Amino acid sequence: MWNKMNGGETSSKPHVVVIPYVGQGHLIPFLELTKLLASQGLIVSYISTPGNVARLQPQVDHAVNSSNPGVDIRLVSLPMPPIEGLPPGIESADNIPVHMSGILMKSSYKLAGPFEQWLELQMKSAEDQIQNSPSPPVCLISDMFTSWVHKSGAKFGLPTVVFQTSGAFAMSVMHSFMKHTPHKNVEGDDEYFQVPDLPFDFQLRKSDLPFIMRDPDMNPMQSFVTEEIDRSMEGSGLIFNTFYELDSLGVDHIKRLTKRPVWSIGPILPKKIFDAEGVERATRDSRGKAADISEADCLQWLDSRNSNSVIFVCFGSQSSLNKQQTEALARGLEASQQAFIWALKRLPEIELPEGFQERTKDRGLVIWGWAPQLLILSHPSTGAFLSHCGWNSTLESISLGVPMITWPMFAEQPFNSKLLVEHLGIAVQICSNMDGVGDEHVVKREVIKLLVEEEGKMMRMRAQELRKKAKMAVEKGGTSHANLQAFREYVRERHDNWVLSRRSNEEKGKPEKNKPCTIL
Ligand code: UDP
Question: From the CB of 371, is ligand 1 less than 6 Å away?
């Protein structure tokens, strides 16, 4: 049944399992990771809950149908346990306000039971050679916020590798910040303090921090997040959705800190993103969930604008602006006289200033709901991106060579913004936090700077340079490509060990049934 190929590899496929946290900023990159690993000849089981699986199914079907035959992705739907404090049916962070996402994070461990039952079944079917069953999983890939997976891995003798959906620079800062809480004894909100234990200079003010992080004693997530970060560094290794040329400071630091393999294999995005024509048509509007504008309408609008003349405004899947913030931003955009696409959440409290859409109809497109972000960022008319600096949005902008205006909102977003503004020189920051209100004059000034002025052109040139480096990193011979091969090898070796021990048992004529395989 198991054949050995030239070079020592066995011909059956290694099986890995990915277990993302249920937020779009996690589900989307985990799906891209899944596609990438499946394209490398691995079987990938993607674990989520029924609502998320239903949303992801069309994208998986598309990936499987449009790839080489034999791509093996299995979406596994586990029942969502009831969660105290959340209405039934809520399965994803984009369906609740940000301040409630802590409840979802903390309750994620409830999936451990159903997950372990599923895992046991996988092990047993492979061991008993049930027809069409895949080989047993040889590696679990958890999220920073699904650290319960480490325990399940240990029970089954499987290594758990953590896939970090944030960058290594921000992760380094977050680790040190949560551990040392250097702001604890700082008085004023605008007093600078140093974040210690980093190989680079990093200064912050309390006013740079998301509201709940300002006072460690008042932060309900302080100990949970600190523990999750620590655990994520104690697994068998870390995969980062980043590339070395962008994030070497962070990658080198995390390697030193964890003394574990760190595979930076990003940017993990649809392959066509680096083609001259941009993103593959069929995947354009299908990241996370279906867009609330048709591809044709969006393209028609973008095609009618000049090159680099449009600013795209979008705050990711979780953040939304309140009335005051929306008004200030609208006034700034209107006063800039520049073209814009603005993705706004459909929430009862969100209202544009009266007459705004009418007055800007010749140069503004408002998308209520989910925007086809990659399609927009990849279009030549898009010249700048006003973003909350979620890591996926950041990577997407960099990979498409688009400079940014930043308004970090929560989590590690202020650290991403600092990387973009202070280290890479491809962004300007206009505001911070969920409670900050952008100044309409600053919005106007910075939009004009990025779309019209020389300084904006320089930023675009630097962003385009980074795009070239991102492309090189994922191509054959590039750093991310090499790391991907190294990770594939790591998995392959464990799989081959299982095959060989299985064969030796078969040859001895006494298979050890029901014994979980031990992979060190
Ligand atoms: N996204 C999108 N359309 C939207 C909002 C977000 O396609 O209207 C995608 C975006 O391209 C990115 C992800 O959702 O891949 C958001 O992830 P990010 O890490 O930027 O932010 P988060 O949602 O986690 O705050």
Answer: yes
Inter-residue contact 269 to 399 (CB < 8 Å): yes
Pocket of ligand 1 contains residue 502 by CB under 6 Å: no
Number of H helices, E strands in the chain: 17, 15
| Active-site annotation holds for 62 | no
Q: Burial letters for 294-318: b for 16+ Cβ neighbours within 10 Å, e otherwise?
A: eeeebbebbeebeebbbbbbbbbbb
Question: Residue 277 — left, alpha, or beta (φ > 0 → left; ψ -120 to 50 → alpha)?
Answer: alpha
Rounded to an integer, the average pLDDT of 157-185 is 95
Out of 26, 175, 253, 388, pick the active-site residue. 26
Tell me, yes or no, whether 100 lies in a domain.
yes
The response to whether residue 314 sits with its C-beta less than 6 Å from ligand 1 reads yes
Cβ 317 under 6 angstroms from ligand 1: yes
* 439 classed as catalytic: no
Give me ligand 1 centre to Cα 410, in Å. 14
| CA-closest residue to ligand 1 atom 17 | 25
367 & 428 share domain: yes
The CB of 373 under 6 Å from ligand 1? The reply is: yes
* Rounded-to-integer distance, Cα 54 and Cα 270, Å: 21
Contact 143, 235 (CB under 8 A): no
Domain CATH for 448: 3.40.50.2000
Secondary element (H or E) of residue 125: helix 112-127
Range of the domain at 159: 1-165+475-520
Question: Which range (55-64, 79-88, 151-160) has the least confidence?
Answer: 79-88
Cα of 392 to ligand 1 centre, how many Å?
Answer: 6
Residue 217 inside a domain? The answer is: no
Average pLDDT over residues 436-443: 94
For 56, 365, 390, 437, the CA distances from 314, given in Å and listed in that order, are 22, 12, 10, 16
State the distance from the centre of ligand 1 to the C-alpha of 492, rounded, in angstroms. 32
User: What confidence tens digit (pLDDT) does each residue in 257-290 have?
Assistant: 999 999 999 999 988 889 876 666 555 445 777 8
Cα–Cα distance measured from residue 371 to residue 75, given in angstroms and rounded to the nearest whole number: 25
C-beta separation of 203 from 193 below 8 A: yes
Cβ–ligand 1 distance for 446 under 6 Å, the answer no
Q: Are residues 394 and 506 in the same domain?
A: no
- What is the CA(389)–ligand 1 centre distance, in A? 10
Answer yes or no: is 173 within a domain.
no
